[in-house]
Amino acid sequence: MSQVVPVSNDRLLLSKGYGVGAKLLQVSRSGQGDWQVAEVWSNSRVLRTKFCNVVVQGDYVYGLSDGVLECVELASGQRVWKAGRYAQGQILGVGDLLIVQAESGEVALVEATSVGHRELGRFAALEGKTWNNPSLYGRYLLVRNAEQAACYELALEP
User: Fold this and answer.
1) Where on the phi/psi map is residue 105: left (φ > 0), alpha (ψ -120 to 50), or beta?
2) Residues 105, 90: contact at Cβ < 8 Å?
3) Structural domains in the chain?
4) Model pLDDT for residues 48-92, shown as the tens digit of each residue
5) First-to-last CA distance in the chain?
């Protein structure tokens, strides 16, 4: 299961693979009383994340749903688009872009947009399967798997 993602002061997004999907919860508390949890929406067909966390960008959520990158409208839980096969990789949100570490070891740069899937570039970063999260420190992208680690310097616009 991916990490629970707070999307506002009172809403939490949960996602899980194996046919479970995603749900948005609203949490409240009256004074010092009991906590109340209400389901805003639930959709078993979206954000079926297994090893991957999701990225929230504005009104949309991006995640690898059964290995395919998916964009979901946060307010409704409805799929906007689903494309690009990355298997059980990881994603990292950077501004209006997504860095996708595919399970195969490739890294792809994808626009985080509701218009559709647009992969801007891709390169072979590691050899073999990886389920590890990529890290970005300034312009340095760090990736690893069980046998390799690599650091790539990314070109940044001024």
Assistant:
1) left
2) no
3) 5-29+36-153 (2.130.10.10)
4) 999 889 999 999 999 999 999 999 999 999 999 999 999 999 999
5) 37
Please state the rounded mean pLDDT for residues 45-50.
Answer: 95
Q: Enter the pTM of the model.
A: 0.92
Encoded tokens for 110 = 């994808």
* Tokens 């298997």 -> residue: 87
Catalogue the long-range contacts made by 16-22 (C-beta closer than 8 Å, 24 or more residues apart). 16/48, 16/49, 17/48, 17/49, 17/50, 17/66, 18/48, 18/50, 19/44, 19/48, 20/44, 20/48, 21/45, 21/46, 21/47, 21/48, 22/46, 22/47, 22/48, 22/49, 22/61, 22/72, 22/77
Residues in the chain: 158
Check whether 40 has a pLDDT greater than 80.
yes
